[in-house]
Request: fold
Amino acid sequence: MWVGTALVAAVLALVLKKDSPALAFLVGVSGVLCLLWGMLEPVGQLVASIRQVLTVLDGTQTIYIPVMKAVGIALVVRVAGAICQDAGQAALAAHLEIAGTAAAIIVCLPLLEQVFTVVSRMIV
Reply:
């Protein structure tokens, strides 16, 4: 279903691109939004499964949660950057990637602090 949606949006965008580039862009963005809407349920199931695994692992949640946040940021930045690229806004896409990288580093700071704490304990 997702592949079909993407192909239909891509073909429509290609057909419309010559006569109406703005409409072709909107068709592409609409295709992305439809795909994201269709992914809500599977992603929700994945998040629920990960939370269940993390409750079993007990004390290691502080390790995995920053990593999952960074992965989420990377996915959002990737999709938004691709949309900016399609709109002809390469500079905006590049700045978005820089901001996404900074956000990923920020959410991983607690993990880095734990790594430094463990390393300092091993040295002493």
